[in-house]
Structures
1.
Amino acid sequence: MFTFVTQYILMDIPLLKQLFKICKEETLYGRYIHSAHINPLLKKHNKTFKIQPIGHSVLGETILSIIIGSGPKRILMWSQMHGNESTTTKAVFDVLNVFNHANDFSEAVLKECTITIIPILNPDGAVAYTRLNANNVDLNRDAQNLSQPESRVLRECFNSFKPHFCFNLHGQRTIFSAGKTNNPATVSFLSPAQDARCTVTDNRQVAMSIIKYMNRMLQFEIPNQVGLYDDAYNANCVGDAFQSLNVPTVLFEAGHYKNDYNREEVRRLMFQSLIVAVDAIASNKIKGKSYEEYAAIPLNEKLFYDIIIKNVTYKNEIMDIAIQYHERLIENKLHFIPIIEKIEKLDKFYAHKTLEANKNEVLTLNDQQVSIGDEIDFVNISNVKFSLNIE
């Protein structure tokens, strides 16, 4: 199917792109992904990998793990801890397609590594398309109390598998910039804090080394669009908790790429990041001592709106209008609802799409003045109709 050896893949961007093209799981698309979508894929992969139930959600949905490889280096990764963060779930199944075919790369990795994947940790939240579980609890704030069945499933898997590395797979909103720039944080990472002082421990440096290789690759693809997530210590967060247990843990955050609200381009970038991370571990390239290169990645800032309408005459003043899409599940289909968030001067903010009002009023199609909180698909600027919907 394809032939290459593991030591050549880290920075071979054309090879990574070709690998994604070949192995993309075409049955998964968009943002609304839940157990019914992946069950047929589990049946397919059950012929090659060990797939087993490891517990149940609040509403009794089965939580499954997928175990691949037989090597001594153990990697644990989990996706959709937050039910509405599905981009990495798609990427995980793309990765599984790589390892489900005989090739030099998969054989080398699976000889060196054993990988346990929980594709959907929060199946109830995935069906409802919510961050929380069915008890309205954020599982990523339940690492100490372990009050929820899904939290206990993850901890029991962690305790029994005894991983050497953990990949905590998430998605982030469109509001983030990579530093104080007009660059979206398309992909973000974090080596979580291990204590309240955010000490740069040897354990954290191992995670930083993994991130270093992924960032090097991504700078060729999305220069200046990689960010670092906030590393303020919170023992209730799973990443911080596992890092504190001396297991190098990497947080992956799938963010926004231009006009990619279905997160299909970001899916590819997350796929490539996972391949590079696993390859670096399998190839014994993770040596630690990567703090300086890691620290050079800019911190995430909340500087983006989905749309800004500039230079609007509003109540006899010149203002800007900020619009954010709210994701809403309606009849099992995800809709992006444009909602006016702010009407003020927004000189320090950026937008994924900008409209220029040229000091005209911005009105509804009924010629009414717009207001904060309006759900609005179209606006009228100087008798010209503009759509606020995703193109």
2.
Amino acid sequence: MTHLEARGMVKAYGRTPALRGVTLDVAEGEIVAVTGPSGCGKSTLLHCLAGILRPDAGQVTWRGERIDTWSEAARSRLRRTEFGVLFQFGQLVAELTAAENVALPLLLAGTGRREARAAALTWLERLGVAEVADVRPGEMSGGQQQRCATARALVTEPRVLFADEPTGALDTLTGEQVLTQLVRLARDQHTTVVLITHEPRIAAYADREVTLRDGAVDHSGLGLHAPVPGGPR
């Protein structure tokens, strides 16, 4: 069942085009990797799908509703409830502890402080970083920070997780550990994932790969893959 759709999406920054008529369907529970060279429009596509940016033309539909026509406030509410967003560098709030960072989306949505902290601790434990619950980001390793950011993105149990180069700032081993946990947790709760990456080994964790070139979907078939039996999906 398709529940996230882009149709003819166009976006430019000034006179520089970023997306040139992108059309994409994402099924419920699917993990889709969007790949392509730097500057091809991957992050812009993710930001439009997540409602962070509005496309200049075309449309974005979520469960049958045109979210690109919604107000900024409505799209922000969507990202606090149905959508989760995970960035390359985590973007944790430096002044808050790990538990406070993870609890933040729940607090913004009106959850009580005690309940939000309990949920945050549960997710930190699931991601193997319960020991840094009361530690601030500046005192954590890069891998710990990204696991905390992953917990924050998943704590609301979103229907869709948008991950923009989530392992790009990590070494190979740590990046694969973080991504393995992310994919496992997403599959456990049937979360749809749109994963932006330029690395084939990261794209191999997805069910399907979509390649962008110069702001458009590459239909040549290059770079498409099927999951390897016994390996990453």
3.
Amino acid sequence: MLQVDHVISERLTTEVPLVREVAQYIISAGGKRLRPALLLLVSGAINNQNPQRHTLAAVVEFIHTATLLHDDVVDESTLRRGRETANERFGNAASVLVGDFLYSRAFQMMVDINDMRVMQVLSDATNVIAEGEVLQLMNMHDATIDEAAYLRVIRSKTAKLFEASARLAPILAGADAHTEALCAQYGQALGTAFQVIDDVLDYEGSTDELGKNLGDDLREGKVTLPIICALRAGSDAQKTLVRQAIEEGDVTHLDAIRDIIVQTGALDAARVSAHEEAKRAIDAAKQLPANAYSAALLQLAAGLLERRS
């Protein structure tokens, strides 16, 4: 990861001061760096020592960071990773344009790799992520969204880059199709579980733990799995209150909504769904060569279910 950070620092060079300032602001905020770490762990599990893995790990972090910059503008977010979002600090225009810079820099780095399969996986992933963002926008304030529609969004918007990160390792290694499919399955399932837990924490955690404002999903009119489960199990009065909050983006009754989500068992139901996805990831990882890296992949999937921030 230190080598990845070195690549990130090296490739953020630009003669435009504002680009450098905004990009460094959001990247220096830290975060979990899960996607590049995933690429490196899968590389270790299949004994891929290709030095280009560090460049590709930086590429997926740049793509992820670009999506964060754009997401926060679309969602009008003010807090991420415990501090002001880039759009809150520098304005929407700077955030969008620097996000574009990071996307284009990521594609420059992909070209340096000079592998068409790598280009295909990452360009397809970037396109699917954009489709997921638009799907989510279309679903805003729609209380009729069901679990299938919700999963379609998060498998596009979040899990696709996890899947691509895990798939790139066997591609670099020239591994067989079965190994590539196992790695891709692990990444997609892990990314799906990660997002379900993230959506649970929007109603279960605290602002200090999460580094973002609680109730943001409700304010933005996002119908996430805890809401879907609450609408499925709640009383008529509870469903009316939840629907009204989603359709109007009203956080006035946030505490009451959180109580409903807890009382209906919606958080537990959502965690069951995350557990099923984590099990899919574990099943895939168990078929990879047994070593310290594949053990870490198993631990990562299992530990995700205990996530509180």
